[in-house]
Design brief:
By secondary structure, the protein is α+β, with helices and mostly antiparallel strands. Helix content is 27%, strand content 48%. Strand 3 and strand 4 form a beta hairpin.
């Protein structure tokens, strides 16, 4: 009743062939849960909470965009950033939220930069949510 999970970011290999029972990732279409026997699928991830369940317990965190592929009983997650809840610095996330809101409320902010700070604000809020678990 399990399958394998590979977790990657550009900076590091987080885990290879982790034996998991279930995995939930934030996709551009909403949360998606994988269980053993899931159909082959690939797609894009959005910034949000992720989790996976092993025989040792549940692991949670935050993913910031990327893609996933489930094939032959292996789920591969390649994320721009990935932080486990226990790694998140709550004070830093709160400072990032305040800075993003300040920048977004600035009268001289260009539209391209508004979207950038909107993404930073979203990531800061999700990081705070994950750190509170």
């Amino acid at each position: 009743m399990s399958f394998k999970l590979n977790l990657y970011t550009p900076q590091r290999l987080i885990g290879s062939k982790i034996e998991v029972i279930s995995v939930t990732v934030p996709t551009t279409e909403g949360q998606l849960q994988f269980l053993e026997g899931h159909a082959h699928e690939a797609g894009l991830m959005d910034t949000g909470l992720f989790s996976y369940q092993t025989a040792q317990g549940e692991f949670t965190g935050v993913i910031s965009t990327g893609f996933y592929r489930f094939e032959e009983g292996i789920l591969t997650v390649s994320a721009e950033t990935l932080e486990y809840s226990a790694e998140i610095d709550l004070d830093r996330a709160k400072r990032a939220e305040a800075k993003s809101e300040e920048k977004m409320n600035s009268s001289d902010l260009e539209f391209e930069n508004f979207e950038k700070y909107e993404r930073k604000l979203q990531r800061a809020l999700v990081r705070q949510q994950a750190a509170g678990k």
